[in-house]
From TrEMBL:
InterPro entries with a match to the protein in the record: AAA+_ATPase, ABC_transporter-like_ATP-bd, ABC_transporter-like_CS, ABC_transpr_LolD-like, MacB-like_ATP-bd, P-loop_NTPase
Pfam families for the chain: ABC_tran
Annotated Gene Ontology cellular component terms: membrane protein complex; plasma membrane
Keywords: ATP-binding, Nucleotide-binding, Transport
Source species of the chain: Knoellia flava
PANTHER family the record matches: ABC TRANSPORTER RELATED, IMPORT ATP-BINDING PROTEIN
Name the UniProt record assigns to this protein: ABC transporter ATP-binding protein
One of the record's GO molecular function terms: transmembrane transporter activity
Domain ABC transporter: 15-253
Length: 257
């Protein structure tokens, strides 16, 4: 361990990647999904991770959240060296510090909206205290789920299901929420609602959010835009309009799937 001292994480960073590479396959089939990516994601920000299909967006999210191993480099999550933890410690860290929102909502079909929101507490074996219950009630109300809270996912619209998933991610106030194409299955009106919610969570609750998307409109809700191409970080921008983001991406779309 002395030969590879852990990187320090700056106080404002929730997620830090240091020269992270992730390759899949071997020989001629070898793909560098991530190639020496270094980046800090700061507390309270809403960061969009953009790039053409196959550029490494999902891989970046998966290694940053400890869902996938790195081939080389280091990941720090909430001040802990994720890449140096064993599987159990990594799973615990993920349960305590990370919330997820996926394109496919990933709700448990047999559970009600309320039970889905409480599931992370159950999995972690944590009691929901009075203060936490007030926070969850507030989220349910703010997200417009009040009347639907006893319904199962199949009885909810796509937009409502994604709001349940967001409430579930926000409920435990994780250090960071990773959202992978959260509006990919939604119509434009539901997409706007979901994106507004994510932006509000960052601005009003100080919730750190990292959202993978290839949609310039979605990314325009973020206050920082990272651009990946061929597994490399090729852009790091402040807030931009959808048109500016489209213009930015055009140069990287060539040859993309
Ligand atoms: N489990 C895997 N096995 C083999 N190749 C993979 C795997 N996951 C991703 N890749 C490859 O890594 C590259 C980046 O993929 P991904 O991170 O999913 O890109 P994006 O999310 O930007 O579309 C692609 O070339 C993809 O085919
Ligand atoms: Mg992807």
């Amino acid at each position: 361990m002395t030969s590879t001292p852990h990187q320090e994480q700056s106080a404002s960073a929730v997620v830090s990647l240091r020269r992270v590479s992730r390759t899949y396959g071997e020989g001629t089939g070898r793909v560098a999904a991530l190639d020496e990516v270094s980046v800090d994601i700061d507390r309270g920000g809403f960061t969009a991770i953009m790039g053409p299909s196959g550029s490494g967006k999902s891989t970046l999210m998966n290694v940053a959240a400890g869902l996938d191993d790195v081939t080389s480099g280091e990941v720090m999550l909430a001040g802990r060296p994720l890449t140096h933890l064993d599987d159990d410690a990594r799973t615990r860290l993920r349960r305590e510090e990370v919330g997820f929102v996926f394109q496919a909502f990933n709700l448990v079909p047999t559970l009600s909206a309320r039970e889905n929101i409480l599931l992370p507490f159950e999995l972690a074996g944590r009691q929901v205290g009075a203060e936490q219950q007030r926070w969850i009630d507030h989220l349910v109300l703010t997200l417009g789920l009040g009347e639907r809270i006893g319904h199962r996912p199949s009885e909810l619209s796509g937009g409502q299901q994604q709001r349940v998933a967001i409430a579930r991610a926000l409920a435990s106030r994780p250090s960071v929420i990773f959202a992978d194409e959260p509006t990919g299955n939604l119509d434009s009106r539901s997409s706007r609602e979901v994106l507004t919610l994510l932006r509000t969570a960052a601005r009003e609750y100080g919730q750190t959010i990292a959202m993978v998307s290839h949609d310039p409109v979605a990314a325009s809700y973020a206050d920082r835009i990272l651009v990946l191409a061929d597994g490399r970080l090729v852009g790091d921008h402040g807030p931009l309009s959808p048109q500016q983001i489209s213009d930015l991406l055009i140069g990287f779309e060539v040859g993309a799937a």
